[in-house]
Amino acid sequence: MKASDAVRIVAAAPGTIVSKTDGNFDRNCAIGSGQWNAVYVRHADNSVAWYGHMKSGSLTTKAVGETVVTGEYLGIVGSSGSSTGPHLHFEILRDGMQVPPGLYLADDHS
């Protein structure tokens, strides 16, 4: 992938990085094909956003426990893990339940 073709992933809301996974192959195009590269961010309301299928080696240099702000760089779109092609898997869990991202982003989650 050329740098000009890279799609940057940024934080949808401020929070704390609670987990990161990197170094997995990022050109999978098959279901059930391994672990993904991802960043997980916990927000003030205790919800956690998952940013997955990232390009290997592209994840933020910030460590688990450090904070991010809205719009801050998290990584580059890839196709790591069980993936059918390059894309961002963006998921939010609140109280153990999935929250539709559009509803969450419209909500006051600060």
> Structural class of the secondary elements?
mainly beta
Radius of gyration: 14 Å
Element order: H for helix, E for strand: EEEEEEEEH
Identify the strand order in the major beta sheet: 5-2-3-4-7-8
Tally of alpha and pi helices:
1
**Roughly how many Å apart are the termini?**
36 Å
Q: In percent, how much strand structure appears in the residues?
A: 25-35%
* Poorly predicted sequence stretches spanning 5 or more consecutive residues: none
Largest sheet: 6 strands, antiparallel
Tell me how many strands there are. Answer: 8
- State the helicity in percent bands: under 10%
Short description:
This protein has one helix spanning 101-106, and strands at 8-10, 15-21, 38-42, 48-52, 67-68, 73-76, 89-94, 97-99. It has 110 residues and is mainly β. Strand 3 and strand 4 (48-52) form a beta hairpin.
